[in-house]
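By way of example, what follows is a protein record of this kind.
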Amino acid sequence: MNRTRYRFFILLFINALLFSGTLLWNGRSHQETITLAVAKGKAIYDMTALSEMPLNIPAAEQIARAAAPIQQLMDGKAVEFVNAMPLAAGEARHWQKDGCGRGNCAHVIFYNDDDGGTINAIVNMDEGKVVGEWEDAYARPLGSEYILPKAFAIAAADPQVTAVLGEIGDADPAMIPMSAWLSDGSCKEQWCVNLTFHSPNGDGRVFHIFVNMEEENVARTFYTRGRKEIAVAAPPPQRNAYTDGCNAQYGWDVCWEMTAHDGIDFREASFGGTAVFDSIKIGQVEAWYPSWPGGYRDEIGFRSSVPPYGGTDVNDLGDGFEVRQIFTEFSHWPNCICCYRYEEILRFYEDGSFETNFVSHGPGCDDLSVYRPFWRIDMALDGRGGDETWLWQDNAWTAVERETELHPFVDTVSPEGDKIALFDGDTHYRWHMTRTDPLGLDEAYLFLTQFKAGEEGDAPIVTGPGDTFQPPRQWMNDEPLTDPVIWWVPLLKTKQSAPLWCSPDPEPGINQCDTSLRARPAGELRQPTAEELEAMAAIPTATPVPTALPMPTSTPRAVAGETAEEYILNAGCGSCHKIGSLGEAHKVGPDLSMIGLTAGEKIDGLSAADYLRQSILEPNAFIAPDCPNAACLANIMPRDYGSRLTPDQIEKIINYLLSEMVNEVQIVGENEPTPDPSSVLSPPYEPTNRQNGMAIQLTLLLMTFMLTVFLLMKTGDK
């Protein structure tokens, strides 16, 4: 072999070694930062794992995977393990014949990446076998520490993420990975997990990364706002933060226990020795943000996104008692960004009535939001089966023979203020939703489904696709309604008004949103007289309203503020739109900074002022063609500004958009570059340490290669 060829191979070998070493070094460095991010995520999960029932999770997964029924469900499909959780005694009773009791059986969840939905197994840990299994095509489960490596690896490989965070392992996580959705992209139907990090530039905002776990890509990144800290003492660390128990008082006998992710399960309640309900629990709390547009599927429980905080309180009310439990995402509430604080409350009264209550304290992730707790109420009056259901509609009581969905729920009630009634022999109960919204914006969905033992929410409930009311909507299949289960989903709307209610910047115990559904024993139904119907027609609402709250009225209460800018911010407009210096770009709604220049051209025959007025009061009348993230969607902008803003406030906002805002806008010349709106979303790109190191290594490789070529050319064929 001549010397030139020999040198060529030697230098080529050296280049190959250097290149391979560079790849190996960067691969290890990349894996180390992902490992660090996973460790931080697991540390947050450790803070939320409050169960006193130990569970060998890897063993539960192994038992489930080895079982023939589960293997059959998994056959030929890409399936990943999500989590395993011990069953409380009430949940385990469905598999009592298979040896399940408190803590010795587990609910194991896998996700089917090919077809969507979950594969679920009930594992008896004592006997090492699967005693129950089912598929749920609509389920979109909560994130867990077991899906962290995949989620972080997908995020770490995305250039948008590295441009903002640099090394994902160096970033400061804000929340545990949350099951989340977006209304205008792949995350509407597919399983996505939202990773959240504190803004690295110290401005107090939260950076959101929507990871599509099925397509294995980043669906979207964006910021939500930071908030000023509130001068309150931090609460003590949360450990052993709930208490299971029973209470026999005021004629009632009821027990309760904390579940992994369905809140407190109140079960087997009786009054005066007569069975009233079999189970009441909360399957999920859906947080909806129009500015994304999308939100979270929160769960409450000892292994959930929002765990219990403090003990379970039993309070004597004088004429009854209540059982209440607070759930808080982190122990430093309320000085946190994107943190949630909920209360699940049941009250029992000496007259045999009872009510389910839910409180949302905030703060959520953005200024404009709606919280939706999904209550499942399995009645079983006077024992299982034989219940009759009646609904007040069209000014009369009507028998409900088959499964039914009802919306709205608070309007058009009977002369006594009731909406539904359940009978079983001599046991009669009627239901109404108490109005609690100071602006009169009370709203709820109600679903009546047929009970099925161990199915359709009787077993542990896995959350469903966002903004679909699934579950229970997928179980509405027109079955006969002989053993009804009530699903009640109230909509708690945030607002900034005077006083503040459910505002995202709370002072503890002052401005929470709350909602209540009350059931009372009553006699047989009777149809109203003509006189009663005539009297009802003259009254806006017959639903009882607590005297402690302002009476809902058709005259809107003014949103706080004195200027158009304050109205815009306090009404939540800046959460979705950029309007000059107000709000932020790259949100769901179009930029309105120059709307005053174009509003008169949107609809033929409609002036600029009339177009803006219609857009505020009837946002679905005309849908703008282009929004920052995708095509603009209907039903995203709230449709209740007519009751949240006074006519004078609306006119001030219109005048601001048409005159003051236009005067502030600098019209860019044809030859002058237009700023990139995306620059508002992310700070300028700065290479990270690993990226700088990689650049140096590539430079050295290039220099070595050039030296190789130079030597070959100089020596020639010798």
